[in-house]
TrEMBL record:
Family: Belongs to the RNA methyltransferase RsmE family.
Domain Ribosomal RNA small subunit methyltransferase E methyltransferase, first and last residues per copy: 82-238
Protein name (Swiss-Prot/TrEMBL): Ribosomal RNA small subunit methyltransferase E
Keyword ATP-binding tagged: no
Species of origin: Pseudodesulfovibrio mercurii
GO molecular function terms attached to this record: rRNA (uridine-N3-)-methyltransferase activity
Length: 246
């Protein structure tokens, strides 16, 4: 059976039961009608990024609007475990790649934080284009949950209070003091936060304060990894740990 085309429907528009009718508009409707040339009576898949997806039939379609009827609806509960990455902000051209891989590798969340060695100023709030990248990646890989997205200003003073949200907190540190390798097992127990520095690495005071606040220092191996490589490495370990646990 051919893979169905997938589109994003915001959670507040999600139908209550099969048979309900929803309206898709904006870029998703244009993609459905203009790019993919979807026709009436075709079946497509919709998801809301909050664990719900379903099969829908197209009742009517125009350039910027599509009317669909729900055929089958499903809910997928959130996992009790998951990895959130807190990554030092930087003017990286590879940010889109990072956003994409966070979805594909089933990351629970992504936080950008203003580090001492960050290049450029962190936006006050996550940009809409970042969420759009999440949606594009989820449509491609079939994910039903979008990672939580946040920005944290104030350096480690903004990061440290976040520890209370998680069961385990680690600091991915390239210094000699970090001798414990991050492992899949460590990332498969509850909600985990891993802090990664910006391209220039952690300022010594930042790392010291995080360690004193209870963030366990871990190593990602002998190589000095790029910003996005470190993130993908951590996400891959977490996915492997989740699969091994199941």
């Amino acid at each position: 059976m051919a893979r169905l085309n997938t589109f994003f429907l915001s959670p507040d528009q999600w139908p209550a039961v099969a048979g309900d009718v929803v309206v898709l508009s904006g870029p998703e409707a244009r993609h459905m009608g203009t790019i993919l040339r979807t026709e009436r009576s075709q079946t497509v898949r919709l998801f809301d990024g909050h664990g719900r997806d379903g099969l829908f039939t197209v009742r009517d379609i125009a350039k910027n609007r599509a009317e669909l009827e729900a055929l089958e609806l499903a809910e997928h509960p959130a996992s009790a475990t998951g990895l959130t990455l807190a990554i030092g902000w930087g003017k990286s051209k590879r940010r889109d790649y990072l956003l994409e891989k966070t979805v594909e590798l089933q990351g629970a969340g992504l936080i950008f934080w203003q580090a001492a060695r960050s290049q450029g100023s962190l936006p006050d709030d996550p940009k809409e284009t970042w969420t759009e990248k999440f949606v594009q990646a989820a449509k491609q890989c079939g994910a039903v949950w979008l990672p939580e997205l946040d920005t944290v200003s104030g350096g480690v003073d903004g990061l440290i209070p976040l520890a209370g949200r998680f069961d385990h907190c680690y600091l991915a540190w390239e210094a000699e003091e970090a001798v414990t390798p991050l492992s899949p097992v460590m990332l498969s127990k509850g909600r985990t936060l891993v802090v990664i520095g910006p391209e220039g690495g952690f300022d010594p005071d930042e790392a010291d304060r995080l360690v004193r606040a209870g963030f366990g220092p871990v190593t990602l191996g002998p190589s000095i990894l790029r910003w996005e490589t470190a993130a993908v490495y951590c996400l891959s370990l977490a996915m492997f740990g989740a699969q091994d646990r199941s």
